[in-house]
Amino acid sequence: MTIVHQTDNRSGITYAYEAIYYWDKEKKQSRAKRTLIGRVDADSGEIVPTDGRMKKGRGGGDAAQLAAKPGPIPTTEYKRLFYGTTYMLDIIGDKLGLSDDLQQCFPDTYTQILSLAYYLILEDKNPLYRFEKWAATHKHPYGKDIPSQRSSELFMEITEDTVQRFFKLQGKRRLEREYWVYDTTSFSSYSEALRQVQYGYNKEDDRLPQFNLALVFGEQSNLPFYYRKLAGNIPDVKTVKVLLTDLMALGLEKMKLVMDKGFFSIDNINGLMKERLKFLIAVKASLSLIRAELEKVYDIFRTFEYYNEDHELYSITIPSEWVYTQERPFKGDVLEEKRRVYIHLYYNIERAAEDQKNFDRMLMRLKQELLSGKRDLKHESQYAKYFTIKSTPIRGIQVTVNETAVKKAKRYYGFFALLSNEKMDSITALELYRNKDLVEKAFGNLKERLNLRRALVSSEKSLDGKLFVEFVALIYLSYLKKQMQIKNLGRHYTITGLLDKLDVIECFERPGRKLLVGEVLEKQRQIYIDLDIVPPSSS
User: Fold this and answer.
1) Long-range Cβ contacts of 346-350 (<8 Å, 24+ apart)
2) How far is 213 from 221, CA to CA, in rounded Å?
3) Cα(176)–Cα(240) distance, rounded to whole angstroms?
4) DSSP states of 239-300 as a string?
5) What is the mean pLDDT of the chain?
6) Ramachandran angles phi, psi of 180, nearest 5°
7) Average pLDDT over residues 277-297
8) Checking phi first, is residue 18 left (phi over 0); if not, alpha (psi -120 to 50) or beta?
9) Which carries the bigger pLDDT value, residue 103 or residue 239?
10) Model confidence at 353, in pLDDT bands (50, 70, 90)?
11) Where is pLDDT greater, at 67 or 361?
12) Which of 180, 236, 254, 419 is most buried, most CB within 10 Å of its CB?
């Protein structure tokens, strides 16, 4: 332990610090932790104790004067901290208006929310109880440790009202005319105390009870701006009506939605049309409207004229009509009219071959079950549909394939369809739809990188608050990944590798002096530039 004296150039006051030196095994370098113990009396040279927190009424004199000054409290300790990545996140937060919107919604706790979000991004998969170690070595918005108990209290303080205000502020920053990709996923939970944790269709075949999460992403901005927690037993198709109500309540009326076929229903399409909203949705090729249009072009559109080399498939767009219906309780009738829709049909040769191969394998298994006498009750309808079965005392069981039924089943292999009510060509529709993997990747980030694969919280309020902080972290990650894609940084870095490259940049905090930023190498500087961020400097 060493006593270090340092004079504040602005005030002329000399402060005394207790310095403890230690070896950082992870960074393989000597580090020092300094703690303010008092100021040095100019006449006697004695150290006058002070707590260094600049509180009025505790120490008086210079401490009280500093506390009365507006703006951020100047540092009272010498600190050398890692700064490269948190600086980057600070700039991203300013660009996206995240810092401002969080401060407006959470004026007393927004820096804590930001620091927890930073930690979740930078400490891949680490639980929150390790925040203390990270906070001691990194410069971050809150600047202090957030104990596990405090983070739990913070989650409890995040209310639905403030979350909705945040959605509204962020929604106004999004591109008005872009399509919004909507999807859901399931998160397993060990807790039996959460009301919305229910057994339902788990998209990862996990046998635990779950809650579902709905997420909306901007197709062009690549950024999320809305989510909603759902009970684990609610199917996708039932969520669209509430989604529309929520988004319109936020003042977002000019919506364009991209959705998977799990959200398709006649009621949902009628509901979207009722609100005059644009949509692009995947639909089953077996749908009667799709089959009728497909049969009209079945033999002509799988030709060279309709082949797209980039996507390696055949495609065509067919104008059609949707029979729109709307119940009118006040008039006691049902409005029925035809509205224009566009059917986008696609045929993929490789997909057709794979489907046929899988179908033939299924037929082989079914035939073996019949011949062995080990019939499965679940397969009885398939036995009857695809086979003619005879049994005689002499020849035993004879099984013959129903070629007509097999040919009919294989006729539509390799086809898939999209339905929209906005005019566009088939390739534009396909590219819009395929951008829905933005949400799938976001769900992957929440489950893997942001450590939400298993929800371990024990109360609804804690889960709601933690989801919000995870959502804030997801916005940062989504922006970062988009910029990496634009500049093709994925050729050289994974997201973890890029963050590690910047994380080693240090800053040096000095009482009464400007922040001193350590060396920034040329490769690190280029990363900042590629991310559209001005590299940090000491000026």
Assistant:
1) 346/313, 346/314, 346/315, 346/415, 346/416, 346/417, 346/418, 346/426, 346/430, 347/301, 347/302, 347/313, 347/314, 347/315, 347/414, 347/415, 348/312, 348/313, 348/314, 348/414, 348/416, 349/313, 349/414, 350/312
2) 21
3) 20
4) SHHHHHHHHHHTT--S-EEEE-GGG--HHHHHHHHHTT-EEEEEE-TTSHHHHHHHHHHTTT
5) 82
6) -115, 125
7) 92
8) beta
9) 103
10) very high
11) 361
12) 180
Q: Directed axis angle between helix 240-249 and helix 266-274, to 10°? A: 20
Q: Which two tokens stand for residue 44?
A: 């006697």
Q: Are 282 and 260 in contact (CB under 8 A)?
A: yes
> Do residues 358 and 427 lie in contact, with contact meaning Cβ atoms separated by under 8 Å?
no
Contact 261, 268 (CB under 8 A): no
The DSSP output letter for 9 is T
Residues belonging to the chain: 539
pLDDT of residue 179: 86
82 forms beta bridges with: 138, 506
Structure tokens at 377: 């009750």
CB-count exposure of residue 208 (10 Å: 0-12, 13-18, 19+): middle
Phi and psi at 70, nearest 5°, equal: -75, 170
pLDDT category at 174 given cuts 50, 70, 90 is confident
pTM: 0.70
Neighbours of 379 (CB within 10 A): 16
Residue with tokens 């799990």: 262
Sequence letter at residue 319: P
Tokens of 234: 């609610």
Cα–Cα nearest to 452, from 437, 473, 436, 432: 473
Residue 481 has pLDDT above 50, yes or no: yes
How much of the chain, in percent, has pLDDT values that exceed 90? 46
- For 469, the enclosing helix (H) or strand (E) is helix 460-486
pLDDT digits (tens, 9 = 90+) for 205-250: 555 556 778 888 888 888 888 888 876 556 777 788 888 888 888 7
Closest CA to 33 of 75, 65, 81, 66: 81
DSSP string for residues in 108-177:
TTHHHHHHHHHHHHHSTT--GGGHHHHHHHB--SS-S---HHHHHHHHHH--HHHHHHHHHHHHHTS-TT
Contact present, 282 and 265 (Cβ < 8 Å):
no
Q: How far apart are CA 242 and CA 257, in angstroms?
A: 14
Reference 234, options 216, 213, 215, 217; nearest CA is 213
Q: Give yes or no for residue 357 having a pLDDT over 80.
A: yes
Contact yes or no for 96/475 (Cβ under 8 A): yes
Question: How far is Cα of residue 388 from the mean position of the Cα atoms in its chain?
Answer: 51
Q: Is 309 helix (H, G, I), strand (E, B) or coil?
A: coil
